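Take a record:
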Amino acid sequence: MLGFCTDSGAQLPPELVGRYGIVVVPLTVTVDGVEHQEGVDLDAEGFWDRFARRPAPSVHTAAPPPGRFLEAWGDLAAQGATEIVSIHTGSEVSSTLDAARIAAEMAPVPVHLVDSHTASFAVGCCTWEAAEAGKRGATADEAVRIAQAVAATVGNVFVVGALDLVRAGGRLGPGTGNEGGIPVLSLIEGKVQPIGRATSIDEACDQMATYVLKLGDGLRVGLSVADRGAAPLWEALESRLVGCPQVREVVRYRVGPSVGAHSGPGTAGAVAYPAPRLEEPARAIHRVRR
């Protein structure tokens, strides 16, 4: 039996974790000097609530210690896993994989570590498709190759000023300080690049949806929002993608502490990749509870 693991930086929503039995290793997030384990004693809701107060909290993130990986892999082994594919945040941006390599030498079963060379829900996409392949009977080596292939094709698009649009009633006007609009961005080869500007929720979502649909066919899409104040963009973007012939599945996820520490409030967007076509032609759309 093949088991799957990732770290909480992958931002996997509970629906996907439960569907595939994925075990998530929590990153350490320190807020105002107090250490927390992401997803254990600090979730997205609790994290963003702290930004509603002033001053904004001081936040730092750190890789999990090796012991957390051993605990996660031990849980999978106890469930019957004889091999584990463990997919993690890229080594270029995190030391998570370094800790995993130390732990792998003591793992109870063989562990295949995957450096995704990416971050946030793009790591989640690699894990999602690898676990889907495992569900269909793929070997560990095949699942690793699939995760690496997804890492090479996954795309992203987002805005970080979503709250400005919402507070302006959906459109930025004179006197807001953002008359030219907020930038619509994509992280490409490790660099944030602008792909447009938007002065309304509709403009932002139109641009983001167009970008996603250009990524290919059979798309699996994750729609993100940080604090709930940006939820209108979540809903508007979803309405543009669900039901499109290029889109196979859509899930929602919250931007959690380990990513939100760097992106800040008001972040909303999408991460997507063209999934290999399955034998079944039907498309299922899954909505994660908010």
In short: The first strand starts at residue 2 and ends at 7. The chain has ten helices and 13 strands. Residues 2-27+63-152 form a domain with the Rossmann fold fold (CATH 3.40.50.10170). The longest helix spans residues 121-135.
